[in-house]
């Protein structure tokens, strides 16, 4: 999400919602089951910014977002029945809350998609990829319905524009269409989260542990933390996710690295902290999400949320890959363009193949992270028993060393920007 001092162009436009109410479920067991399904989803899909799924915990339901492809989910009770798995776009909007906590919402009226992530759950539920797209990535935008007049003339296609301008141009559906055009992957679901959602979620889980290799001071985001390990929540967590001047090379690419650190730690917290067995914490998390996030209508179906949660809850953390979409700077370093390695990421997503990150990738970048020296070394692989039948796992897409990222079980530390 953007810094308070950054200028915003354009006027916020929000896709016209289709209003509806979800029927109440009276039984307490149903209530907790649905809350648990949300948390299981959160465990792998929260976007530096919030979570992948939410449910109407009684009356906090938000009007759904429009998405052209969501009808694909009609009559699909289990995502395992979907050819190619499920792909979900999460947008972190920099729209200022009415409280004025991040600037005057009237004066700073631009609504940019400062965080754009694609979460892909494989059809066989064996792996997950979470791809972060830089806000300054130059993209082509396809023709999109006009959110202000959905039945009228569509908005014209554009080329050579920055990704973070698409939300204000054509709304959420246009962001999803742009990511589809970029990656070749069909998007079936998605959601938008704003500033307060991140603070509320991190508080609901009881704090998220992050590691800093050096002290970080960023007056723009308000992040001021000493080197070492910290449990952060509320607006400290939001500052950690928003900071770019204080981390890495001071760019949005460094901010993405911070977001990946946070998300991997959030996954570990939810999976190992007893959260799934704590009804009070389950409720707090679900309430934080549903009160602060808009979803496309098809994933507001409780049965479908349970299906998604079941797909995610047993996936090993080492099979969840956080990938920074591979890019290179343009000539004047004001934006980034997809690099050759982007085609490999696209191909893996299209073919529903797991990826393997190069272990040296983060060390080859100025905006990367460093391994936590206090983290235990990875376990030695167990030799295969010759008597066991051969493994039948899917082919793996090995990514080159210019594609940074981390796995869900990888503990890394944020680096400071000396400038």
From TrEMBL:
Transmembrane regions listed in the UniProt entry: 31-55
Family of this protein: Belongs to the LytR/CpsA/Psr (LCP) family.
PANTHER family found in the cross-reference section: POLYISOPRENYL-TEICHOIC ACID--PEPTIDOGLYCAN TEICHOIC ACID TRANSFERASE TAGU
Keywords: Membrane, Transmembrane, Transmembrane helix
UniProt-listed NCBIfam families: lytR_cpsA_psr
Key word Nucleotide-binding present: no
Origin: domain of life: Bacteria
The species this protein was found in: Agromyces badenianii
Start and end residues of each stretch annotated as Disordered: 1-25, 358-419
Record-annotated Cell envelope-related transcriptional attenuator domain positions: 113-271
Protein name: Cell envelope-related transcriptional attenuator domain-containing protein
Annotated Pro residues bias: 374-389
